[in-house]
Amino acid sequence: MQSIPPSLTAHPRAHSQLWRQTRRLWCGGSLSDRATERKPKRLTGTSISIEMEVRNHEEMTVPVPMIAQELAPLLASFATCFTAPTFESFRWLLSGWILCIGRHTVTGVVRAAGAVGVKHHSSFHRFFRLARWSVDNVGLCLLKLVMKASPKGEPILIAVDDTLGRHWGRKIHGASMHRDPLLSTRAKTVHRWGHVWVIVAVVLRVPSWDKSFALPVLCRLYRAEKVCQKRGEPFFKKPELAKQLIEVLAKALPRHVIYVLGDNGYTNGSVIKNLPDNAHYLGRGRIDAALYAAPKKPSGRGRPRIRGKRVASPKQRADENVGWSSLTVNAYGREHTIEVKVFDAIWYRVSRGRMMRFVLVRGWPGREQDDVICCTDLSLDARTIVERFCRRWSIEVTFHETKDKLGFEQPQNRTERAVERTAPMALWAFTLTVVWYLTLDKRLKSAQLPQYPWYEKTEPAFSDMLAALRRETWRQNVLDPLPLTPKSRKCVETLLHEVAYAA
Questions:
Q1: Stretch(es) of the chain classified as CATH 3.90.350.10
Q2: Residue 497: half-sphere exposure toward Cβ, Cα within 13 Å
Q3: How confident is the chain (503 residues) per 10-residue block, as mean pLDDT?
Q4: CATH number for the 135-295+307-404 domain, one of 2.60.40.150, 3.90.350.10, 3.30.360.10, 3.40.50.1970?
Q5: How far apart are CA 413 and CA 423, in angstroms?
């Protein structure tokens, strides 16, 4: 009996049917019945091709994920976060997440990646449910890629916010009723069943386009207080989860000063009182905040005072017609002229004894009422504070794109680990797509923006970047290997272009 070649035994899962047939042939049996002692039948047709593959077993290759060549080095950066088999599953799933144009369930992603039959489908479910890897470690590796793609000299802006992932099913881990910000109004509050995720994203500005992208790197699943009490777990509010993420991010960037951009839901003591030494906060404040002057220098015994006398609130200052000055700022991609009033004070409830700079804004684009922005960095002027706060809006665009194009709300996992790991895949796919496009040679045909006689586009949106990555992947793996005529190739390219923009 001949021995089975080592190259065939090394990967028995790659071609399961071929493996069973080739093993019988090498063991001296037949394709129909290995246990029979009769002479093997003469092989014809398909069997001859199988036998030829056995004889040339050195040429057999294991299937690899269908990804663009330029994306492979970026995915290789995550190898240290996984074991070798788990990293292989990660590459398949992430490539499928990008290429999937249907529902982003685990099985849907596996089909889009072409991984059916490569492994048993349960191995991809085990990747989320049982495999040993950390979401934070993957996020920190992604942070390194984002920092390499960031333009030099730009400040490091970190946007923090939460978003609702709508789900159905009472037995989904961590799900509960939450306020739906899209359907709720001032007069009526609408609640939906699902998950709330607290997310921090690096706001990356592209100077040539004068456009910003919020690239998610870290996230936490928010659990309602009733859920935590039922499970006997400690309860953390959303700002407390944001504080944890900011600390992880600041620790990973010890030589950089970061600016945390937040809305009024995160402008509170949980975040600002616990800021790391290399972090500042910049966000929307309360118009009725209780402010205090700086304390006088101690002149006697006793504990020195933390705050001074009570001063006028932002609303009281806004009612005064003196002290306003005109300012032209670049807000949301356009030039706007607004009225501002700048002052420094202590917001004791939020910053304790730390002095903060407040910018009262009147004539805000799309807002009739006066607004106030606060910042812990007293060296910034009013224009810088307003323009940096406006860049926080890019995280809202990210939430829309990940839900619409990458299926952030569509995974149907139910167990604890699977829930905590599946939704972040959509966020990572968003970040990797943008980083890939920014580091790509724009002379590639797939990276060029579509031009039409009735519409000329100069700045790409995320949908253009995602379509470019899909086109380049399909071109390298599907289109180029086919012997097509120029006319047929043009027809296939038109088809791939339209499919690449599908949600």
A1: 135-295+307-404
A2: 13
A3: 43 44 42 41 47 45 80 94 95 95 93 90 93 96 95 91 91 91 90 95 92 96 93 94 97 95 95 95 95 88 88 94 92 90 96 95 86 96 95 96 94 92 96 94 75 84 93 89 87 87 81
A4: 3.90.350.10
A5: 9
